[in-house]
Queue: 2 jobs
Job 1
Amino acid sequence: MKSQIVKNMLHDIPEDIKLFSSIYADLMVRISEALVDQDLTKSDLAQKLDKRPSEISKWLNGGHNFTLKSLCKLQVELGVQLITVPQKRKHIDHDFVKAPAESWETKTSKTSCKIVPIAGIKFSQDYKTVVNE
Amino acid sequence: MSTFVIEEWYRGNECTIYSIRKDVDNPDAYTEADRFFEKYGSFGNAELEGATKLLLQFVVNEIADVHGAKEVFFNRFEKEAQALPYISGRQVNGVLQIDNFYPGFPLRLYCYRILENIVVLYNGGMKTSQSAQDSKDLSMKFYEAQTYTNKIKNALRDGILSISDSELIDEYGDDELIL
């Protein structure tokens, strides 16, 4: 490319656009490979997903934005992992997070943390967690 | 249409992206891809500029550097459901549109996917009506894209152009490609 403007634009692409482009491409490649591997037709997929074939056509022709629900359904039906969300956080710093007392118990049973009461605030409703490193 | 040059625009790990230079005599002249990205990337409209950046990122990173020009990225209306093309629109004479990242995506960029490792980018524009030919900003680019594609196809068929790895070369092995 010769245009300095285009080079600069490429250099300064916002992170959210980079992420969108990358995830979308990965997703499409993954889904298409799964369809080819399983030799699925539009009608097969429609049947598996309990959708009308016309709706599947929309998906296959790109005229559809995936919802989380449709992605989950696809992940199950195709048997390939399409989305993952990191579960483990090294550090949680919930400043002044409000939560009911029962959820505090759930939290403490799952993570190793101590509850630091915030001075002057009722403990059961307002707390601060610090994950033990 | 007179002669034009097919010029390397970006070389990635997975795919070489070419574009068209209309000015055969001036090697410094911008290619059609440069013109497209420069025009819409500084259009003074946030939506268009965001769309341009997304297209640029997709072409350079996803197609050229990471995945190659997978069929799934391009239109395949003649095929059945073996792929999930997220780029919709019509395919005429092998000319493809890169366009549909989300409903209402405002831009169209024409291109010709020769192989998974070679793509030629043309120009494009804003889609403002149902068909590209009826969109004022696009219709000329659409017809130009047809002409470029015909010439490239014929040159490949007649041996004037050939493919070596992920490169286009002419019949003398030269990479100065004038058609």
Job 2
Amino acid sequence: MRIPCPFCGPRDLSEFAYLGDAAPVRPAETSDATAVFDYVYLRANPAGPHRERWYHASGCRLWLTVTRDTRTHEVLFAEEAAP
Amino acid sequence: MSVGPYRLPTGGAIDRAQALSFRFDGTSLTGFAGDTLASALLANGHRVVGRSFKYHRPRGVLTAGPEEPNALVELRSGARREPNTKATTAELFDGLEAASQNRWPSLRFDIGAAARLAGSAASAGFYYKTFMWPAAFWEKVYEPAIRRAAGLGRASGVEDPDTYEKAFAFCDVLVIGGGPAGLIAALTAGRSGARVILCDEDFVLGGRLNAERTEIDGQPAAIWAAAIATELEALPNVRVMRRTAVVGVYDGGTYAALERVADHLLEPPFGQPRQRFWRIVAKTAVLATGAVERPIVFGGNDKPGVMMAGAVRTYLNRFSVAPGRRVAFFANNDDAWTTAADLRAAGVDLVAVIDSRAEVADHIRAKAGNARVELSAAVADAKGGYGLTSLQIATPKGRIALDADALAVSGGWNPQLGLATHLGGKPQWSERHAAFLLPADLPAGLTVAGAANGMMTTAEALADGAAKGATAADAAGFTAAPAPLPRASDESFAVAPLWQVAASRTKAFVDFQNDVTASDLALSVREGFTSVEHLKRYTTLGMATDQGRTSNVNGLAMLAALTGRGIAETGATRARPPERPVAFGALAGLHRGKHLKPTRLTPSHRWAASEGAVFIEAGPWLRAQWYPRPGEKTWLDSVSREAAAVRSAVGICDVSTLGKIALFGRDVGAFLDRVYCNTFSTLPVGKLRYGLMLREDGFVMDDGTTARLSENEWVMSTTTANAAKVMHHLELARQVLWPQLDVRLASVTEQWAQFAIAGPNARALLERLLGDVSDEVVPYLAARIFDLGGIPARLFRVSFSGERAYEIAVPAQYGDALAHELMWAGEGLGVTPYGTEALGVLRIEKGHVAGNELNGQTTARDLGLGKMMSAKKDYIGRVMAARPALIDPDRPMLAGFRAVDPTKRPRAGAHFLKIGAPETPENDEGYLTSVAFSPALNRWIGLGFIKRGPERVGERIRAYDRMQGGDLELEICAPVFVDPEGTRVHG
Amino acid sequence: MRFSFLSIAREALRGNRGWTPHWRDAEPKAAYDAVIIGGGGHGLATAYYLAKNHGLTNIAVLEKSWIGSGNVGRNTTIVRSNYLLPGNIPLYELSMKLWEGLERDLNYNAMVSQRGVLNLCHTDAQRDAFARRGNAMRLHGVEAELLDRKAVQRMCPFLDFDNARFPIQGGLLQRRGGTVRHDAVAWGYARGASDRGVDIVQNCAVTGIRIANGVVEGVETTRGFIAAKKVAMAVAGSTSQVASMAGLRLPIESHVLQAFVSEGLKPLIPGVITFGAGHFYISQSDKGGLVFGGDIDGYNSYAQRGNLHVVEDVAEEAMGLMPMTGRLRMLRSWGGIMDMSMDGSPIIDRTPIDGLFLNAGWCYGGFKAIPGSGLAYAHLIAKGEPHPAATALRLDRFRTGHLIDEKGQGAQANLH
């Protein structure tokens, strides 16, 4: 698999570290335990396009949001996680 | 010197001027340059090459390529022995040694063949139904016997002396296969200017063109192929890789390929690897892997002497070897009749042509000349003890017997599409080809050309190759014109499916290597294994080293017939990488032995070595474990001396392996407040603080100190083990969670050499180097920058040992020099280098937690650090740390432990039971994490987690240890064994 | 027909014509007392124990493809119960005991081969952790031995003791551990369940779960609606997909785990060996192939295939551990889709929907757990309360914090 890093160009999978689903958003400070629990533990885990967090550990050290189809591994899009 | 009784007098692509001697099963034989082991064995009349897997039947050469199921040998000897090597792809070299396998005591007389006597009792899956009684017999009796009989070749059992390499390559167009379609595809793409890589697994380009007498542009096809190869090699943008098989297709246009650099040599030349494993990244690829001929299932079809018709042509035309003296052939298609013509042209006695079809066109029939022709007929049974001697032919008029010592068989051709299906595509059944063709969902960027695409004639293959080469180059951003097509033949390949001969009376093999017979398939269906995957798994069809290349389609077709479903509906099993078996050594490359993973050395490694350090692997690092001195008998002597020196004088220890992260920006304080559970924003410039970092799930992730060097510049230390993990975590927090904060991070672990200087004489030592480091200038927990002879030196007043201690950091290149300087400055002060063991002793004596306690399963409270969790701010892990199970007062908490008998040594990993309590999980109260011999207390001490530990100081408990003999009575104590008041740190 | 040496001999004389299907390929009925979604190892074992232990036979196993097509036929066939935490050990040990009597219980030889599982350690800290684990096992009545370097060398002289990057210090040995012929487990349980009246329905994909007022009513399938008072999921790999039909969101991600086999070889290595300075495990099958694997690929996937970085890692570790493998060849690789749970341990529990049950999150442990999981799940489905060996494997543990995190990696599925 190759990930088109927006800064480094397409690079081999082995340069990256994977975190998981990009959808969960860390609740603001005041939020309740249920919201934090959902954020930490629950995942949609879709079979299909998945927006997910990858870290270009052996490259530019940026966290990326990669849209990838979990059925085919086709990488549809890659962008900086927080532009 | 004999050229071999079956070698034809002239012709072929062998070099008769270059004779090569080799040995098979101890017999000396001769072949020629250009031979494979199989062709050389056949030339010498060696028809039996090995024994089959289950019935140990004698087997000969069936094919002339990598699809070979039978002719497997142990190639080479000693440490270079390679079991299961296909004789059909092993290039002959002078001095080659090979031995037959899976036979004992000899190929001719094999005891294992007694398995045949079990006959139909040893049918598919019989082992699932028996060997169940008595229970203990399975491991002791049945299984060892099965294991000895099974398996194929023998591994050398010793380290492989050869080396391997791995490499990356990048191209616009990858062409897989150098037959007619691949050659012209590569030429077309190459002429467009695209960067082309052409991989072919053979040692001569041309594929089937080398095996046929066909002509291209009026010249022998092999000559045409050689000319194209020359032109390709002259193009600077084209790389031709011979002896290189593409073995896998992976995501994103990544192809795995194996280059056999030195397999055709006695041993690799100096400095050369045996094989090279390539990862080729290609924008587009053309799959031109051709087709493989399939056998027909009839009785005795595994007899040595029965050979694929195409292979017979290869041996005749390329290797100049006759398959036998009296050759028959049996086919269901027009293409195979070329074999008849070639046999006649070579002067071999063609005894009969048997075709299952009722009609064959006259111009095809003419190829047989005057030979006997039987139409609407089939070989029912092949006979012969140790090789083919006669045939039983079923004809409309009845059974006919015929003497023959070789039989060429063709059931049609299967396009080789394995690589096209690695990413999940399903091949489609074509009635016209009586074969599976390419899947509808090809991998992105991949096109299929030539026979692999069902273009079965030379002319079709060339046209398709040129077109696909252009398509691929265009898709990669070039403008390509298909190469002009040469004149080539357009032979008929008409085929009428024939999978199995119904009239057979003897064992008819579908999968030769795994000994799967037609009756096994029938039995399997009778027992309900009717899906193709069930059939495969129950009978082991297609699971041998040839991956079913000669058996799968026949098996599927027979399954379809047995179940009354069509072949298309029955479907095919999925091809899995690798397409060719690949040596572990090649996949590992240089990553073996000491080079399995990179080794990281500390900046003072050379100094430590000069001090006689014993080194220990700590993750990727090599660290000084202790420094033996003359007269010390055990490691414990050394470690105790080092630890005692720190408590009485001064010790120095390289702690550069701790992770170091530089943080810059206006908001670093606020940022640290969120990633540490305690507060950092209040930390003044010039000070440092111990911090505890939680994961978002509320458990402890890591600890360390962070210093504020100036208003906006901070430096964090992490544990050695978690350096990279913390860096990822902080970058996530900075970039994703709180991008609005002004924070920048850099890992500086490798930029700074850092030493601990610990002990009552630490200050005196440092003053010789830095001048005044008194408590007024460097108070406890201060961080100061000094000038050390023009070098910036960071001085941190921290202590892991409980003694007055400092850590000094200098740019890494000065680390080794600094170690020497520290030793010089410590002269007369009792300076002592100490290693990781003494470091551990000192921290255990002080009750400081480290890796054994920070095991990812413990909370801040468990570690006795619950008070560090700020109630005034939000931070990572705050909310989840409040879950009921994490604040349960019954959780095991950190405590100190010492054996009641001070001479006894407890062992880490022991569990805690109340004294006298039954040994049950319910009574398990915790476990001992760290143990050390304390020179300060002159006894073994430990840290561990025990239920309500802090409340139970003074209580005696049992250390339950069935692993290491540390089952003893312990006393719970406070985790701080030395200087509980904490005065020495200021001493 | 009862399987025995005698029946084989008798059938051999009759040309093997008397054999019949090992299980009935049933047509689905309109309604059952319970349906199990998923005809893999866990689903089939559950059906078997529901019928055998609880007399529940009006049940069906619904399999979207052919039985055993998922992870039960895509693993490295290892069985062991050498776990650390009290939440896990009882279930895996229950499973181990059931493996030990499986062929006679099922009258089906799944070739349970107890030739030992040896986990190597390479550092003091690892040895301490193994001691902790071994002692935990012993407290649970599970045998375990801690071997020193010499003992490991006696057992496996072919390991690299001279030039290893991470020298072997010793190992934790469970002699009862070993391997099992994986496909036969599915077939054996299917036969056992079918013989007791369970309907095994292949090519029947569940497309919906019908729920009314918080109570399950049955499942929509590609072969029509099937009513059932109890619906039990056993679809590891696809759990999130099936659970979402009931509106459930779970602490699970799907990840691909590759496995590999070499060409067939004469006996070369004993038992199962795992490398402690990486992630690599290897054994040799009865057919002679070296069966081995490593880490998951690391990214969410439903593709049943992986990428090269893991292939290379695994080969490197093979060479690092056993330099004699250099000239041996990898023959085939495959991929299975794991339910990676957020603490690395499984879930056998009720769901918030009445009558809907969950068996999921098996991570690496699915195959070895099959008998125990089936027995405990059947107990839960039949009695409505957890089996004593599975009391910790609850869905709400993530909320309460009663995690079973063997590796101490926290809430990141791909690190377990």
